[in-house]
Give the backbone structure.
Amino acid sequence: MFLRIVKLEWVERSAELLTRHMMLFFVPYIVGTLAFLPVLRENGLAIAVSLVGSTLIVMLVAGGVAARIGRKAPLAPESEQGKASANL
């Protein structure tokens, strides 16, 4: 919609329906959480540590891969860079 490829009129009716019934989508998650509340209380710290730790590991690995790929990318010669900026 930001790029104006999809018009508001095309999705407005469906969006209103989904927004109106949004709570129905979350009920299974809420009931499941309540069913496992004793397990979550017993293991809450371990779950939180594993979530934070795994997130940090993924971020570090993704950053390392991006840094390596960035270092291996060939740089364009000065003459080609000047041509590219002149065409803009």
Q: What stands out?
A: Helices lie at 8-20, 22-35, 37-72, 78-87. The chain has a mean pLDDT of 85. The chain has one domain: 8-71. The chain is about 85% helix and 0% strand.
